[in-house]
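Lecture 7 notes: from sequence to structure.

We start with a single chain of 305 residues. Read the sequence below before looking at the structure.
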Amino acid sequence: MINWQIFSLFFIIFLGYLAKKLKFANDSWISVLNNFAFYVAFPSLVFVSLASSDFKFLFYNNIIFWNLLFIILFGTFVYLICSFLKIEKGEKIAFVIASVFGNVAYLGVPIGKILFGDLGETMAVALSVIYLIIVLTLGIFLLESYNKKDGRFIVILRNIIKLPIFWSVILGIFFSLLDFSIPNFLFSGLKMIAYTASPVALFSLGIFISFNVLKEKTLAAIFLSSLKMIIFPLFLFLLLYSLRVNIKNENFFIISILQAAMPLAVTNFVLAEKYNLNKSLIANSIFFTTTISLFSIPLLIKFLT
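Now the structure, written as tokens:
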């Protein structure tokens, strides 16, 4: 079942690739689709996810705090490694965000449910919220600081405040904490838009991908894929395992490692398009890590359980 979930990602990417080959679509679609995903679909997805999450659950287990801390710590570690290797600033930021931001919602949440039922699903959603908040606050701040000529803090903050995705985080948390009831017609409409986020971004990725693109930035993509699929899960495993006496729920520990081992989220490609990062690096890394996950996720599940 897990592999079928992964194969469905490849299917949508292939449809985008096929549409371009048959000349139904062209490169001009990429910007349009990614703008829709960035300004409309992903904000809807984030709001729906956060507003329907029980934020009290985030305080249920201290492992949530440790996940938050170690994700930021690993991002800092990647930034320092990239600085040491003299990687240019745009790619450095791409490495920092993509090395921690995996497909925690589309793949991670169903896997949590398969392994541990409704409680596992809730745990996976709680961790997805943590990843979303980090990437859509600190990550967007880094991207805005890179993309704007005027790097003053107040200018960057002003640009962030203009983004729909920023307000989707704020309002989603606000509605969840205050337990506001959202009218059914509004929530259902937002959910319908939210469901388009990943398919639209994956279709756009398929239009972008070609065999020539897959040959570009190959070594960098392998390095990024290794950081995401090997180093980050191992980093989290070792640090969380060293704190196992403080972990109240062993299942939460397992799901934490699995979420860290998810392949790159397609949101990374949307951000690369929006903020003028290297799209070939991100596209290749999404393709590589998703392929690897066909084998790595079942093996990791067997090891952890």
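The two ends are 17 Å apart (CA to CA). Keep this in mind for problem set 3.
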